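Worked example 2:
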Amino acid sequence: MAATSERHVFQAEVNEVLSLVVNSLYSHREVFLRELVSNAADAIDQLSFRALTEHGLLAEDTELGIEIVRDQAAGTLTIRDNGIGMTRDELIGNLGTIARSGSKKLAQSLSAEQKKDITLIGQFGVGFYSAFLVADSVRVISRKAGSDETWEWESQAKGDFEVRPAERASHGTEVVLHLKDDAKEYLEEWPVRETVRKYSDYVRWPIRMEVERKTGEGDEQKTEREWIKLNAASALWTRPKAEVEDEQYREFYKALSHDWADPLAWTHFRIEGTHELTGLLFVPSQAPFDFGERKHSGVRLFVKRVFIMDDAQEIVPEWLRFVRGVVDSEDLPLNVSREILQKDATTRFIRKQVVAKTLTLLEELAAEGETEREVEGETRKVDRYELFWKQFGRAIKEGVYHEVDARDRLAALLRFRSTQDDEARCSFGDYVGRMPAEQTAIYYVAADSLAAAKSSPHIEALKKRGFEVLFMTDPIDEWVVDALREFDGKPLVSAAKGALDLPESDEEKKAKEEKEKALAPVLERLGKALADDVKTVRVTDRLTDSPACLVADKSGMSGHQERLLREAGHDIPKQQRILEINPDHPVIQRLESMTDEQRFAEWSALLYDQALVAEGALPSDPGAFARRVARLMTEGAP
């Protein structure tokens, strides 16, 4: 071993991932080749992009591509490219640590059963390490474009790796796999050819392999070696849709996204006219484990089939971060920068098209309903939009809030449970279609959970009248509704805000006015007793079973919103809301006849705290609330 060789220890989470790869993941080993070819293609993409402005990087090597070399005698399979290459520090950083991928967090959360699942490696984002599925030892020799230094990285996946100086004629990287005895099939021509065709046919750079061919006949027969091209090397998104099979779309998606599951749906489009644009956008079937924290999309930007950037934020809004795919523009300059993208009119056009095409795809899924599809070899009834909503519904809600121009289309894609059916989700359109003739608004109630929403006192009268109420249990829901305000001309009304203004007959109005007049003294007494907590006290038409509830002004902040903001650390001043009482409830009738002011004050405080508890909040003084309940229980004991 050379004296200049350096030994490094893998980062802890790399060891854990390598252990999973080497000891647990045996099926579908062929994907190692897809991962290494994809890495090589990415390296060439990077070099191609940089060479637009750094002309000396390519040197004499103007024909970019990937080569696969099989060495039967040495038992090695080599994948090499003439891409951007890596420096010593990049070899150590890129191959010795995966902290940036969030893998440590995922690895710690895996159950023993999950660790046996081959599909998990894609979620780690550690495709390079799949090389150890087939190799006992891996060497990586790399020379950075523009540098005279070549470095070699080597590991047997036993906890450490070595880095040493090496020799390479030109820039690029070669990965040398010393194949395991049970993986020697990859020294044969056809397994390699079929694997490349299956997974990497879309790669825009030529993938070549040296093969043996017999020529002549009889005694004149000779064996010659020649290089053959293994992939079509045409960008899938540039082909006519009629020429692309579904399986090709699926494999392209997997190679592009490093996802091991099939996509849920996709849209392939071409736009011609003032601007020319082609694109292929996919909706994944499962959200990545870090979806809640992710801020970037998985859509790659190409210009005239030249890769420009991975995370094209300027053409894909943050709420569409679940979308994967490619967008290829004929109009942007090849040396486009993020600064240019931010100001360019073409960028705004592309962004508009990405949003519109994605929404059309989702609308088609929503209209599709339940259909029979083959899942894991069986024919099942599947609602693809329901599957999408479970994984990415929150992103659509974010879109309603941020994407003003598409707000109406996004609103139609929202789904909620309701009093009609708390198991299945419904759309605003479904809700409006079921509204009785006398109902003029869409009612909803926000709560911390489905159980709390179902038992909310605010919806008692609505349910009695047969008016459906939507349950909004996601913290973002009320802000989404505040942004919408209406759907199909019907106002969105919170059951916990303002007066419900339910339709009522003249007799009902007269009876309510008489009750308010009769209860005026007790309303006044309650207002004084709770002056520090409530804005006013009034008779309600929204309660049928509960004695009281708290409601906000029509344009005020609901108790649910107030709690969420406080939990998020915001300093929110106390909101005085309105206490509404049910004139027909025995508790209110007891209060009406109570003459002991101290006892009346105790009952008033208990009534207020009970209204808080009913909506999922805690009393400001839980101890005092508990003592009042205990005294009441003692008084009522036989």
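The chain has four domains: 6-229, 236-382, 417-495, 506-638. Residues 99-107, 109-125 have pLDDT under 50 and may be disordered.
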